[in-house]
Amino acid sequence: MPKFLIWIAALAALIALPHGLSFSQQEILVFLTINVLLVASYRLLTLTGEWSLGHVVIMGVGAYSSALLTKKLGVYVPISMLLGGVIAALIAVLLSFPLFRMKGFYFLIGSFAAGEIIRLLWKRFRDPFGGAKGIKGIDPMPDFSVGFYQFDFFEPTSYYYFAGIIVAVCLWILWRIEKSPVGLTFHAVHWQDKLAQASGVNVRAYRTLAFAIASGFAGISGALLAHYIGTINPNAFDIDLMVYVLTWAIVGGTATFYGPILGCVVLTVINEIVLRELGLEQMRPLIYGAIMILSILFLPNGLESIVQKFTKRRAAEGAPERRPAE
Amino acid sequence: MLDLLAQTGLNAVYAASYISLVAVGLVLIFGVMGVINFAHGELFMAGAYAIVALYAELHLPFFVAVAIGLLFVGCLGLLMEKALFRPLKDNPLGGLVASIGFLMILQALAVMGFGVRMVHIPPVTQEVIVFTEKVRLPVARLYVIIAAIVLLSALWYFLKRTKFGWALRASAQDPEAAALQGISITMTARIAMFIGAGLAGIAGALTAPLVSVNPHMGHSVIVTAFIVIIVGGVGSLEGAIVASVAYALVHTFVTTFYDGVLADIVGLSLMLVVLIVKPTGLFGSADRA
């Protein structure tokens, strides 16, 4: 089957998807869409070999920035989302000065500390961050019409389409960045940092760049979240969500662009839909934990390795003389 | 004012005691297994729930309950070693994720067994040592301080003076060379996991009557322990103890004179400053992660 037919079928399925779901499942779908952007941006950061525990707080920076811009300065909502991303990226550049002195485990914990400080500052200062209760009554995305479809943002379905379009554009940009010379340099910084340095690559600058870009997109995902639920507080961006992001990425696998997204979708569907439907409400964390352990024990290269096995074999059968493009 | 300072100092000594028990266990596990045990706070919680089950519900004597709790949590450590960390020996990120999975399982079991709400434990002893009118030390807190001093001294003796301890440190330094000398890496890993988990367990068990026991109590414990082992330098037991005392002093004083959230911010900022000045911690040298 030609490739574009698969894409069109996938697109049609994504458009049709919310209509077969209950209201609460539609809401989960919106969160899932936002989380896909979050985890995809996280992967860009891991390309340079650093695993951050502050990514969710950076997402919160985007959410708080966008919420405050609309509330205090009356900025128009879609523009505030973009600015939320920009501010998140700027904060990341600031954080990079202390954090990039560290590597490995120290970076992991250092990024956690930096994130936690930001989060506690939101908690401590009621003005302007609203303290532990956070910010309420954030302006929703204004409704609009594109002729054949009326966006009504009280409906999760409408917000799903809106967020879906934004996330799709962001994913496309992330994809282009990864395939560009800049993205290849990120790989080099991770796997051959001495060689890259010797070839004149400013390793520190590229690590900062990856951190800033990843944080910018995380900020946009946070802004998408803030204007959907209308209320944000410091606890929404705590280490619990960060742990989920980390496990989505690792269970999905980070060798490919789609690995973390796959992990996010599969684990969310299992956790939020399958286990809920089975009526295992109290046992959900237990089963989720067991699935994490089993997948890391028996699928150390992530869910993506299953997909790769399948696609590689098909490629080999179809055109044995051609080498894979990558 | 002097009274307040003395009282806050005593509180800090108590905090330093249980923090150092947890942190030293975490360092030991990291040193020998090379894996960050995210579930360490939940091992602390498991120790506390052992007291709920054995002391508050089955009415066993407190110290018998503590001893059983120690063994129980130590065995949880052995289970983690066998089921998770040994198969994932060459995959530190995998070990991290597996320990997060284990953490979720332990939390869920605590919720299913005892409910989400905090559990009330009858006080072990009402006795209070009165130094002056305003400077007092509850005996239950004194137990924690004594346990920390005794256990950490014993551990120090074990690691520095016994053959097993030498073997343990050797396999932390260089597993291959240690194996070539005939040291069983599996055995040292088991000992390290048992001791590391047991220390967290006994800290949880002894502090259970003094704090609110709930399924999410491990969270703040693990955060504190991470700060402490980073400041002390990962892999350094002495560093962990020194950092525990320093962190407890700062945190307790800021909490007393300002508020708890600010104390957390100050603690985390101190850690960041240490990392910026010396990116491998105060006592740390090699980076194994």
Residue-averaged pLDDT of chain B: 86
Distance between termini of chain B?
45 Å
Total DSSP helices of chain A: 14
Counting helices, strands and paired strands, the structural category of chain A is mainly alpha
Helix content of chain B: over 70%
**What distance separates the N and C termini of chain A?**
21 Å
Q: Summarize the helix and strand pattern of chain A as letters.
A: HHHHHHEEHHHHHHHH
The shape of chain B is globular
What does this molecule look like?
- The complex is a heterodimer of chains A (326) and B (289).
- Chain A is mostly helical.
- Chain A has two domains: 22-236, no CATH class; 238-326, no CATH class.
- Chain A contains 14 helices and two strands.
- Chain A has helices at residues 3-16, 23-47, 55-73, 77-99, 104-124, 126-129, 156-179, 181-191, 193-198, 203-229, 239-252, 258-277, 284-298, 304-318, and strands at residues 144-145, 150-151.
- In chain A, strands 1-2 form a two-stranded antiparallel sheet.
- The longest helix of chain A is centred in the middle third of the chain and has 27 residues, at 203-229.
- Chain A is globular and about 55 Å long.
- The model of chain A is unreliable at 318-326 (pLDDT under 50).
- Chain B is mainly alpha-helical and 289 residues long.
- Chain B has a domain at 14-128 and 137-213.
- Helices cover 74% and strands 2% of the residues of chain B.
- Chain B has eleven helices and two strands, in the order ααααββααααααα.
- Chain B has helices at 2-33, 40-57, 62-85, 92-114, 139-161, 163-173, 175-180, 185-207, 218-232, 237-257, 260-277, and strands at residues 128-130, 136-138.
- A two-stranded antiparallel ribbon of chain B has the order 1-2.
- In chain B, α2 (40-57) crosses α9 (218-232).
